[in-house]
Amino acid sequence: MKTDLIRRHLNYVLSFLLLTIPFQSIFSDEKVTLHLKWFHQFQFAGYYAAYEKGFYKDVGLDVELLESTVGIKGIHEKVVSTTGQYGVGSNELLIQRHMGKPVVVLGVIFQHSPSVLFFKKSSNVQSIHDLVGKKVMLTPWMEEIVAYLKKEGINPSDLQLLEHRFNPRDLIEGKVDAYSGYATTQAYDFNKAGFQFVAYSPRLAGIDFYGDNFFTSEEEIKKYPNRVKAFREATLRGWQYAMSHQEEIAELIYNKYSKKHPIERLLFEGQQMTPLIQPVLVEMGYMNPGRWKHINDIYFELGMLPKNICLKGFLYDPNPPTNYDWLYYTFFITLSAVGIIWLIQWRRLNKQYSENLKNQVKQRTEELRQSNESLQILNQSLVNTLEELTEAQDRLLASEKLAVLGQLAAGMAHELNTPLGAIVSSNLSLLDFLKNKLQSVISTIINFNDEDSKRYKLVLAESLTNQNYMEGKSERILKKELHSKFSYLDKMDLYGDHMQMVIETGLFRRPDQIEYILESDRSLEILQVVSNINAAYRCNQIISVASEKATHVIRALKNYLVSEKEAASNDSVIDLETEIETILSLYHYNLSKVTVVKNFGPDRKCIGNRDKLNQVWINLINNGLHAMSYSGTLEIKLQTLEQWIKVSIIDSGVGVPDTIKDKIFEPFFTTKPNGEGMGLGLDICKKMIVQMGGKIELEPRTIGACFSVWLPKANF
């Protein structure tokens, strides 16, 4: 009896365990690990917010945050070694992907890299070109700094490179002349130490890299797609919260994760991150394939990657496009079934005909009536399908516009960032002159005697009349020539202040007046006053030129994007010269190595649709540039032939082989690699031109290719 009672209790316990264990495994959170690429700081605020605010837990994730004490080294291997691993990375993921590591970028947090190059404001390094032969500390994996230096004509071999110790005191104490770091963190350390510095960003030269991103492995996405999507959404939600509640998150980091940096420094870092992340203007996590191609191009110029590597599978798509193959299969099966049914019915009717002619005639008449109704239904279905295809074509044209903007994003960013960077830099110099130097300049001028005033006016007139900027090498040669010519003057020492001021003010162009100017006891003050005024005047000139350049780019972009009602029909009057010039303005950055020859005749207006014609010009110009590898000659010719205007776009590329000339206008025919074109460009161009009453042809040519478009001439 007691034995049965014990057995019964054991059965109850085993049954309870068998029932509860599966439920515990079902409702437990999935464990994943996120590897940070540095010590705990505000740079990773979004991940702390997602963890502490329960965003990860809301989607069933138990996330472990691991800081790194050696930077990004080793993180890629950990992420791809097993599932459940995520990491914080940067642009180096493109190189890791090419090296064979199956990493996938889930989203970009920093739309602009915080990497800058710091100089001491009062040092002998006044421009990026003065770095030659100087001591420099460069952070590993900051390739945008190296690319910036190369674009300015400076190779790493021209520098004295020292190992980066991540100690701002190295620059403060003069152990190095330049020091790479983040504008979000090191700037605070320099300000706190009362150290005056100048920061140069690669964006001034059009090198606009992404900053931090977060990534995982292909295997994680393949095996756990829902977990990856949940992790991404919770992470982006955490970043939105962190950037909107910076003080709260700064206190959280300090109290719970690390007291290495004060709350004041964490808040400074958050404020500096805001314009780099752009949480209001740009969707959190957004990344543009065109920007990654721009980064690939920079790495190619540095010799670190081949050109145009395939980005397929590298950028995560949370909402992949719908696969419509099932619709095509269903339509084919339905059509086949209708055909089979019709064949069976026909055979049955034929058999009945041999049995009874009269009944067959009546039955055949009924069948013909039913077939007619079916044909009417089928005809209506085809009409509906044609309307859907027309709408799809319009949507495709709209997507083509966006695709062009994606391809030109890096170029337009360079065309805008360069003048805007010059405006910002010149404005700061003007502000420094007005606040710190203007009063001193006025006071000095007032105290000049009559003879010194005459000298001051002579130097000022020469300086403002002939503005000049001299490179370092040319300046050194000129100094040696002046020192040799005026060796009898003590003030013309090769490395003296007078020599430098003679160069900066442009007085060297008046060698007959140099001795007269230097005779004054206040000659150095005269030259310094003119140098300060000349610098302010040069800043004003730079702002004017840069503003006009930025306005030109914006005007071209607006003309391309904004469609007017009268230009939306196929019988509008189009100014071909204006529209083609607009397209060339958008391609300005891509035409740096291309010679553009424009032969516009007297008749430049045609009848057509402006938006559709712009798509045609973009397609033909883009094909020509691609065929030339963006280097060669592009000719655009307008001719009047009776009632036609003929537009010819001629490139000096590889041309079109004879074997494919008859296929280039066929849909889905392309010679580009997979992922770079659908083969619809020329097919759509031909259809649009025909709709406008024109025609497009590939004309024979021995070198390159010539595509000509005939359009109806506008008669007035």
Automatic annotation (TrEMBL):
**Ranges where the Histidine kinase domain occurs:** 608-715
Identification of the protein by name: histidine kinase
Binding partners and assembly: Homodimer.
What family does the entry list? Belongs to the NMT1/THI5 family.
Family annotation (Pfam families): HATPase_c, NMT1
Stored PROSITE patterns: HIS_KIN
What function does the entry list?
Responsible for the formation of the pyrimidine heterocycle in the thiamine biosynthesis pathway. Catalyzes the formation of hydroxymethylpyrimidine phosphate (HMP-P) from histidine and pyridoxal phosphate (PLP). The protein uses PLP and the active site histidine to form HMP-P, generating an inactive enzyme. The enzyme can only undergo a single turnover, which suggests it is a suicide enzyme.
Q: SUPFAM superfamilies recorded for this chain? A: ATPase domain of HSP90 chaperone/DNA topoisomerase II/histidine kinase (SSF55874), Homodimeric domain of signal transducing histidine kinase (SSF47384), Periplasmic binding protein-like II (SSF53850)
Give the residues annotated as coiled coil: 354-395
| UniProt keyword Transferase present | yes
Enumerate the catalysed reactions: N(6)-(pyridoxal phosphate)-L-lysyl-[4-amino-5-hydroxymethyl-2-methylpyrimidine phosphate synthase] + L-histidyl-[4-amino-5-hydroxymethyl-2-methylpyrimidine phosphate synthase] + 2 Fe(3+) + 4 H2O = L-lysyl-[4-amino-5-hydroxymethyl-2-methylpyrimidine phosphate synthase] + (2S)-2-amino-5-hydroxy-4-oxopentanoyl-[4-amino-5-hydroxymethyl-2-methylpyrimidine phosphate synthase] + 4-amino-2-methyl-5-(phosphooxymethyl)pyrimidine + 3-oxopropanoate + 2 Fe(2+) + 2 H(+); ATP + protein L-histidine = ADP + protein N-phospho-L-histidine
User: What GO molecular functions are on record for this protein?
Assistant: metal ion binding; phosphorelay sensor kinase activity
Pathway per its UniProt entry is: Cofactor biosynthesis; thiamine diphosphate biosynthesis
For this entry, list what GO says about its biological process: thiamine biosynthetic process
**Alphabetic keyword roster:** Coiled coil, Iron, Kinase, Metal-binding, Phosphoprotein, Pyridoxal phosphate, Thiamine biosynthesis, Transferase
Keyword Transport included in the entry's annotation? no
* EC number of this enzyme: 2.7.13.3
Which species is listed as the source? Leptospira bouyouniensis
Q: Gene3D superfamilies given for it?
A: 1.10.287.130, Histidine kinase-like ATPase, C-terminal domain (3.30.565.10), Periplasmic binding protein-like II (3.40.190.10)
Secretion signal: which residues? none
Major enzyme class: transferase
